[in-house]
Write a structure and sequence with these properties.
The chain is of the alpha/beta class and 284 residues long. Helices cover 55% and strands 9% of the residues. Strands 1-2-6-3 form a 4-stranded mixed beta sheet, with helices on one face. It has a two-stranded antiparallel ribbon with strand order 4-5. The chain is globular and about 55 Å long. About 4% of the residues have low confidence.
Length: 284
């Protein structure tokens, strides 16, 4: 390891018990690096007291990591997920770039054993960071998922079940990503923050470009939905109520959710969710 790598590793190990969030920007250009760091910090500041404590790594890449796009989807701009050992069971760990893994799993100096430096990771592809407005929208979106996980974990977990439905049901129900309450809330928050930082018109212009450059029909629909939020962003969103509503709509598929929960039962985030409580009340 070089001196710079040693210095970074020492900083991570020194703060394992106290760090609340770390923003790391991977960029060759010093100006781009500074601009992205500043934008990211401004986005975090907009969450204010709502931003929870937690060992969170926010990694802003300067390239698109293709294995992740192959796994999640070609239009993917990033993700947010909790980390727990064993890492390979409930995460995208196998698809992470090596330089991201190296910041998450580090060697503890006294035991020489690898330890988790963070409990949560947000990763943004390079293409999501190349424009300040786009960076603010995507980063705020993923930060809202971190807030959801930390402050309303059961609702977060319930919503995570919906994309696991068989493809034919998703198509039959005409479900889009923005129909999932946690996803809709993240989009609302991200637009609100981007408008605060840059103004409505730059955000609308950016979303116009995103619609024009969309690579598939799903991205077109999602981008048009986000663009529609620019003119009128709700002041609040009833995540619990909207979660209950969508499960009411999906009640005919109880058996499918039972199958999904059977697959997920080893993950502690889903351990206390049952089909009965899921449909009796989404917040029971």
């Amino acid at each position: 390891m070089n001196q710079e790598s040693d210095r970074v590793l020492d900083q991570i190990l020194d703060t394992l018990d106290t760090v609340t969030h770390t923003i790391y920007v991977k960029a060759q250009d010093a100006v781009a690096k500074a601009t992205r760091e500043t934008t990211a910090q401004r986005v975090v500041a907009e969450f204010g007291k709502q931003f929870p404590d937690g060992r969170l790594l926010c990694f802003l890449d300067d390239v698109d990591h293709q294995p992740l796009k192959d796994r999640i989807g070609a239009a993917n701009r990033g993700f947010c997920e909790p980390l727990s050992e064993p890492l390979y069971e409930n995460t995208l760990w196998f698809y992470y770039p090596d330089y991201l893994k190296a910041r998450i799993l580090v060697e503890e100096s006294s035991s020489f054993l690898p330890v988790l430096a963070f409990d949560h990771v947000i990763y943004l592809h390079g293409s999501a960071c190349s424009n300040e407005v786009g960076l603010a929208i995507t980063f705020a979106h993923e930060l809202q998922h971190f807030v959801q996980y930390t402050t309303a974990r059961k609702l977060w977990a319930q919503n995570r079940l919906i994309p696991e439905l068989p493809r034919h049901i998703i198509e039959l129900q005409h479900l889009n990503w923005f129909d999932i309450p946690t996803e809709r809330e993240a989009r609302i928050v991200s637009v609100r923050i981007a408008k605060t930082l840059f103004g409505s018109e730059p955000v609308r212009e950016f979303m116009n470009r995103r619609v024009a450059e969309a690579i598939n029909v799903g991205e077109v629909a999602d981008s048009e939905f986000i663009r529609g939020l620019v003119g009128s962003v709700p002041g609040s969103y009833d995540l619990a109520g909207e979660t209950e509503k969508i499960f009411g709509r999906l009640e005919p598929y109880k058996q499918e959710f039972a199958n999904i929960l059977e697959e997920a039962k080893a993950n502690p985030n889903f351990a206390d969710i049952t089909v009965n409580t899921l449909f009796k009340s989404a917040t029971t």
